[in-house]
Amino acid sequence: MKRYYISQLKEGIQLDGVPFVVLKKSLGMSKNGKSSLTLTLGDKTGSILARRWDYEGGEVSTGTVYEVSGRVIIYNNNIEIALDRLTPASHFDPRDFIPQSPRDSLALLGELKKKTDEVQDPGIKELLKSFLYDEKFVNKFLLAPAGKVIHHAYIGGLIEHTWEVCRISMVAGEMYPEINKDLLIAGSILHDIGKVEELTYSTQIEYSTKGRLLGHIFIGAIVVNERARNINNFNPSYLQQLSHIILSHHGDYSTGSPVLPMTLEAETVHRADYLSAQVNRFYNILKDKPEERWIKGDNLLGRQLYKSKVKNLTVEEILMSEIERLEEEEQ
Ligand SMILES: [Fe+2]
Ligand SMILES: [Fe+2]
Question: Which of 79, 162, 308, 330 shows a CA-CA span of 20 to 30 A to 147?
Fold first, then answer.
């Protein structure tokens, strides 16, 4: 964690090597003929201008994180940083720059491990454990976002989404005994596993080259098949069906699935995936605009969303709104 976030900066604070990402830069000439440097610095809480009137340092790159030293001042009625020193940061925590899931990723991992213990088939259980107990994989799985923009687009978003899909699927699994629970658990946990490699997340969420070229559906199917091949006597029919869940989980050719869900388990995981993504997407659109009732959705959604205030009202507020309504009726 950083010592200071941008939203906490106040006049007079002295910054000593605090990491910020350079969002914009411009080099100019100050009145005394020296070159001046103006930067827009950012972190997950916002952005701030930073200036140095007599800059003689090296090239500054946008998108790079620097350890910034300087004093927070008021200039032209705005808060900004009078720069002293800038050094490229050798390491930093992506959680300082990208918003983070409100849920505890480690606790969610624990719950996924518990679900894995319920799996009956030894091959499927071993396959799941080969992911969830692999420290190198888990380190990425705990941090990865589930998307760049639309849903769970924050640090820890992938494990949160995976946990949601697993929980929603299990409700269906309990209702419908004809659904194979082992495949349901494995399909839910592994359906988006390719996102660990599809997305990068240092100061912002981006697609990796591998992600752009192959996509998480294909990457996921490959990774799962590679690991399953190393497990003795892995049931080939289960592997085929598990691959099918991963390949079909988007539910449609137009959304990137090469095959449509053709098993009960694949259809269930697809529906759970859709519900988890859509609820998160609606929530993200609605949460930042507490005063509005009708809110424009994102471009792909193609509809407005209605924000009901009923649930959040206190008893006093409900009474007040009822009084206002009656008064309006009388007028
Ligand atoms: Fe997906
Ligand atoms: Fe998903």
Answer: 308
- Residue 136 C-alpha to ligand 2 middle, in angstroms? 21
Calculate how far, in angstroms, residue 217's C-alpha sits from the geometric centre of ligand 2: 10
Task: From the options 3.40.50, 1.10.3470, 1.10.3210, 1.10.150, give the CATH code of 98-285.
Answer: 1.10.3210
Q: Tell me the pLDDT tens digit for each residue of 114-137.
A: 999 999 999 999 999 999 999 999
Q: How far apart are CA 97 and CA 203, in angstroms?
A: 5
What contacts 78, CB < 8 A, 6 or more positions away? 49
Distance 331 CA to ligand 2 centre (A): 52
CA of 152 to the centre of ligand 2 (A): 10
Residue 132 burial (10 A CB sphere; 0-12, 13-18, 19+): middle
Ligand found nearest the CA of 189: 2
Q: What's the gap in Å between 192 CA and the centre of ligand 2?
A: 5
pLDDT in tens, 31-46: 777 889 999 999 999 9
Q: Which CATH architecture has domain 6-93?
A: Beta Barrel (2.40)
Distance 161 CA to ligand 2 centre (A): 7
Model confidence at 310: pLDDT above 60:
no
pTM: 0.85
- The answer to whether the Cα torsion of 288, 44, 94, 62 is positive or negative is positive
> Mean pLDDT over residues 193-209, rounded?
95
